[in-house]
From TrEMBL:
Pfam families: DUF4010, MgtC. Residues 23-143 form the MgtC/SapB/SrpB/YhiD N-terminal domain. The chain crosses the membrane at residues 18-34, 46-68, 74-94, 106-135, 155-172, 192-211, 217-236, 248-271, 277-299, 320-340, 378-399, 411-430. Keywords: Membrane, Transmembrane, Transmembrane helix. This is MgtC/SapB family protein. The keyword Transmembrane applies. Residues 195-403 form the DUF4010 domain. It comes from the Bacteria. The keyword Zinc does not apply.
Length: 431
């Protein structure tokens, strides 16, 4: 089986390699052809699209790759040109019948090229491309449904976000401004903060809209936590006042949103300072796991009584004004933490972090990440983020106790009690 069928400079092929590669090529053609044939039957299409056709196209590319090495490159070019001509003829015929789609014709070119990749041993690449291709092809009706729900404002905001990310951010100055030791303001970094936070809000808007109102209590809290865990706390606290019998479900949504807050902390530290991320990974993960555990416990207790009529309010898809305000807050916090550290030492840094965490956990997390290893040592920065997380959680607990029903308070005492106990253990272990 190891006997070489082809042995040339730059290309060799054993019997075993040939059998493996031709099997992969046939499999690729069958998968693509199955999807195309199913789609054609569903749409009553008259164009060429079937399992046999696409297996033949992949094998043609496979054989053409062999001809490229054994005969001459122009032979492969002639075969590719032939496939292009056949596709053009097929499109002309189907277009005359009113079907002007090019998807199958373009897919057939992909099939030919994938066969060539396989014979040249690029099996992993060809399989990855095949999976992506089939997923895109099979999602036609879902994509149409999603595009049909997009409003002009959402399309405009998405294009605005892409413009800011690709045409504005790269041209911001990448240098710090200010007099030492307050030379910590970097326009490029502030731009990154604005883009990332507004992008997170845009993603949350999309999830909130397309998952629908009946997505269930856990998903309501998780999706809402991506946008604003404080907003989720307020909405479901008020809901518990209106319907006290649903207090356990409301507590589930609130605690799920609070759990996502810790995920955001890990995401920001990983993006902006991986050394700080490694310091925080264990303590934050412990608190996150405890939060998920108590959330799931409450969810299982009242799983049969789902809330399906409470939807989180949709705001602007891209709230650029809020993102710019966030950038200003981030700049002020990074200056405040620097000032506190320079003039009051570690205690000043921790106190300022606790105060900053009351209003926003993201800004203080990103600020500490940017200062860690520069103006702050890693241990102080990590402790500041932990304290800010606890401070922000206390605020949400206060909102729930103030605005929620007595039953909701009991559930929150349990949930946040477990979270605070784990956070205290993490702080002690960290110190």
């Amino acid at each position: 089986m190891d006997q070489l069928l082809i042995d040339q400079n730059g290309f060799s092929l054993s019997q075993w390699d040939f059998l493996v590669r031709i099997a992969v090529a046939i499999g690729i053609g069958a998968v693509i052809g199955l999807e195309r044939q199913f789609s054609a039957m569903k749409e009553n299409s008259t164009g060429f699209s079937g399992v046999r056709t696409f297996i033949i196209l992949v094998l043609l590319g496979f054989t053409g790759g062999i001809f490229y090495h054994l005969l001459a490159p122009w032979v492969y070019g002639a075969l590719l040109l032939g496939v292009i001509i056949l596709n053009a003829a097929s499109y002309w015929i189907t277009a005359k019948k009113g079907d002007s789609g090019l998807t199958t014709e373009i897919t057939s070119l992909f099939a030919f090229i994938l066969g060539t990749l396989v014979i040249n041993g690029l099996i992993e690449i060809s399989l990855i491309v095949t999976v992506i291709l089939v997923v895109v092809l099979s999602s036609k009706f879902r994509i149409k449904a999603i595009v049909g729900k997009i409003t002009p404002e959402e399309l405009y905001d998405f294009l605005l976000f892409v413009t800011l990310a690709l045409l504005v951010l790269p041209f911001l100055p990448d240098e710090t401004y200010g007099y030492p030791p307050y030379d910590v303001v970097n326009p490029r970094e502030i731009g990154w903060v604005v883009i990332l936070t507004s992008g997170l809000g845009l993603a949350g808007h999309i999830l909130t809209k397309f998952l629908g109102a009946n997505r269930g209590i856990l998903l309501s809290g998780i999706v809402g936590g991506l946008v604003s865990s404080t907003a989720v706390t307020w909405i479901f606290s008020k809901k518990s006042q209106d319907a006290p019998s649903l207090s356990a479900q409301c507590a589930t949504a609130i605690l799920a949103a609070s759990s996502i807050m810790f995920v955001r902390v890990l995401i920001w530290t990983f993006i902006f300072n991986q050394a700080l991320f490694l310091r925080l990974a264990l303590p934050i993960t412990l608190v996150f796991v405890s939060a998920v555990g108590v959330t799931f416990f409450l969810y299982q207790q009242k799983k049969s009584q789902e809330i399906t009529d409470t939807d989180l309010p949709l705001k602007k898809p891209l709230d650029l004004k809020s993102a710019l305000v966030f950038g200003i807050i981030y700049t002020l916090i990074i200056l405040l933490v620097t000032y506190a550290h320079e003039n009051l030492g570690q205690s000043g840094t921790l106190i300022s972090s606790a105060i900053a965490g009351i209003s926003d956990i993201d800004a203080i997390t990103i600020s500490a990440s940017k200062l860690a290893g520069f103006k702050l040592d890693l241990s102080t920065a990590a402790l500041a983020v932990l304290i800010a997380s606890v401070s922000n959680t206390l605020v949400k607990m206060g909102i729930g106790i103030y605005a929620g029903s007595p039953a909701l308070r009991r559930h929150l005492y349990l949930g946040y009690g477990v979270m605070f106990a784990t956070a205290l253990f993490s702080l002690i272990a960290f110190l």
